[in-house]
Design a protein that fits this description.
This protein is of the alpha/beta class. It is 40% helix and 13% strand. The chain has helices at residues 32-43, 55-67, 82-95, 115-119, 136-159, 186-202, 206-209, 232-237, 245-257, 286-293, 296-299, 309-314; strands spanning 23-27, 47-52, 71-76, 103-106, 168-173, 213-218, 265-269, 272-275. α1 (32-43) links the parallel β1 (23-27) and β2. The N and C termini lie far apart (45 Å). GO terms for molecular function: oxidoreductase activity, acting on the CH-OH group of donors, NAD or NADP as acceptor.
């Protein structure tokens, strides 16, 4: 256990040449946050493999970026399928000029519903048995991330060269829902807490893994993407700051390109970013979260309503 790790130095200049020529796999990279990250990484000179279920959009993204002169390869992949995801990892290694894998960004995810909807479904006959709930959101957000993590560690070690001092790098995309309470998206929250737990269990295990390694967690608040389009305007109208994709891409590129950053969790809210202090000294993220919630500059004047999430979303 690390009592207090060094927080991220946000004043430090980001040298994007640090990942030039490196092999990068991004799940869910055809749209939203994933595509924003994939584009930024490709612009830095990396060889990027986008693994996504949307074949039409994925092929379109590949064409757009390769025509712009970047190294991008699309692979159709279902992250809830071990076989499909394994093939995506092998494709990324094959695409790399050095037949290596250096960076994996486990970004794929989808929004989740509430346990209330599953425990108390509308129009259920009082004499009927409760139907088995879908676990698709858990399978994508947690199981898929777990599969991605296992495969990343395996192929990191398999492609590690003792002559290469570059630290293999795994970034897990979580959410502020992995720190806060959210009744109306409880299955999403459960998955993101699980992703955070997975990250905490591997972040300081470089010696055990047997190769140079570091990992980070990215925990955005609300980001304007297709996944949030059904409610994000309500969030903004209520006075809560909403991030744009580029507000999250910047912090991702910072941790990717600074090898001194290891085992840190970053929260993005609006155009602000802060280190969660997710270690025992920081109250496992609680100190930074409550400090930021109290500061309207970060979360906005409507942020206090987020503490009463159910009331917040049911108010108009």
């Amino acid at each position: 256990m690390v009592w207090r790790a060094d927080p991220v130095d946000f004043s430090k200049r980001v040298d994007r040449d640090a990942i030039k020529g490196r092999s990068v796999l991004i799940t869910g990279g055809a749209d939203g946050l994933g595509y924003g990250i994939a584009k930024a990484v490709a612009e830095s000179g990396a060889y990027v493999t986008i693994a996504d279920m949307n074949e039409t959009l994925g092929q379109q993204r590949q064409s757009e970026l390769t025509e712009a002169g970047y190294h991008v390869h699309f692979v159709k992949a279902d992250i809830t399928s071990w076989e499909s995801l394994t093939l995506a990892f092998k494709a990324a290694i094959e695409y790399s000029p050095t037949h290596s894998l250096d960076i994996v960004i486990a970004n794929a995810g989808l929004s989740g519903g509430s346990i209330l909807e599953k425990a108390f479904p509308k129009d259920l006959d009082e004499n009927a048995d409760l139907p088995q709930p879908s676990t698709l959101d858990l399978n994508v957000n947690l199981t898929g991330t777990y599969y991605t993590t296992v495969l990343a560690l395996h192929y990191f070690k398999k492609t590690h060269s003792p002559s290469d001092n570059f630290k293999k790098h795994l970034i897990l995309m979580s959410s502020l829902a992995g720190y806060a309470e959210d009744t109306l998206a409880s299955t999403y929250m459960a998955a993101k807490f699980g992703v955070r737990g997975l990250w905490k269990s591997i972040r300081y295990q470089e010696d055990a893994f047997g190769f140079p390694f570091r990992t980070q967690l990215i925990a955005p608040c609300f980001v304007r993407t297709k996944m949030t389009e059904s409610f994000v305007d309500h969030i903004a109208k209520a006075g809560v700051n909403v991030s744009q994709v580029e507000d999250v891409v910047g912090p991702v590129m910072r941790v990717l390109c600074d090898e001194e950053v290891s085992g840190r969790s970053l929260c993005t809210v609006g155009n602000k970013v802060f280190d969660m202090g997710d270690d025992p000294a920081g109250g496992d993220g609680s100190k930074a979260l409550w400090k930021a919630l109290a500061d309207e500059e970060y979360f906005g004047p409507g942020a206090k309503g987020l503490v009463r999430y159910d009331e917040f979303f049911r108010s108009e």
